[in-house]
Write a structure and sequence with these properties.
By secondary structure, this protein is mainly alpha-helical. α1 runs antiparallel to α3, α1 packs antiparallel against α8 and α3 packs parallel to α8.
């Protein structure tokens, strides 16, 4: 029983560290996504929010399991096993839903970018700020190209944040003034990067949590055989 208990406690420590890492990573991703929420929508923020919630739940679950194992409390261990089974189920459902709705989320992201183009006016300070920040930081312009600002947003000129040079003068080599790449590709790459990371993390934790559940069940069985109810 000591070997199983020791392995389970080691698992809980690592599980706690993993939960803390998820909480930090999710918080950073959420703060980054919040900078563009007005023009990209809530797709990226929702994924970051799920990572934060998962991290918090894992931290609480780790503490619960540690208290149950360290103090030989059968009730806490049973609660740990039930909660872990629930989180495994939720992760499995989230992975299926995320994979199924991936293309729909991609289309929603593009439509949100298009609709925010027309809101690029002095009255909509947040939209203007986010578009300018997006175009400068990601070296992109418009949704698909700089022409979006003229054809879709009906602006008289392309925003200065699209310019390759601060003074918006043509680059001497080829006469290009604005960034060639549209921001949709940059936003899409960011969205899918977070999606892949979330999918990979969920898959990794799925197998790790199965191993943790097996250890918890074995420890619970041994405690019942040795101590009965505590």
């Amino acid at each position: 029983m000591r070997l199983i208990k020791s392995l389970f406690l080691v698992f809980l420590v690592l599980y706690f560290i993993a939960g803390l890492s998820l909480l930090i990573t999710g918080s950073v991703a959420h703060r980054h996504a919040a900078q563009y929420a007005e023009i990209t929508g809530n797709s990226i923020m929702s994924g970051a929010g799920f990572i934060i919630a998962l991290g918090v739940f894992i931290i609480i679950l780790s503490v619960l399991g540690f208290l149950g194992a360290f103090n030989n409390r059968l009730g806490l261990l049973q609660l740990f096993i039930g909660s872990l089974a629930l989180i495994i189920l939720l992760q499995f459902i989230a992975a299926i839903v995320g994979f199924t709705l991936r293309n729909k989320a991609d289309a929603t992201l593009k439509n949100k970018l298009y609709s925010s183009l027309t809101a690029y006016t002095p009255e909509n300070y947040e939209v203007v700020t986010e578009w300018d920040r997006l175009q400068r930081q990601w070296s992109c312009c418009g949704v698909d190209s700089s022409e979006d600002w003229i054809q879709r947003a009906r602006l008289s000129k392309v925003p200065d944040s699209c310019c390759l040079k601060i003074d918006c003068q043509p680059v001497t080599e080829n006469g290009t003034v604005h960034f060639n790449q549209g921001c949709y590709e940059s936003a899409r790459n960011l969205f899918f990067r977070y999606s892949k990371a979330l999918g990979g993390v969920s898959l990794f934790f799925f197998f790790v949590e199965i191993a943790g559940m097996v250890l918890a069940i074995m420890l619970l069985r041994d405690l019942k055989n040795n101590y009965g109810s505590v």
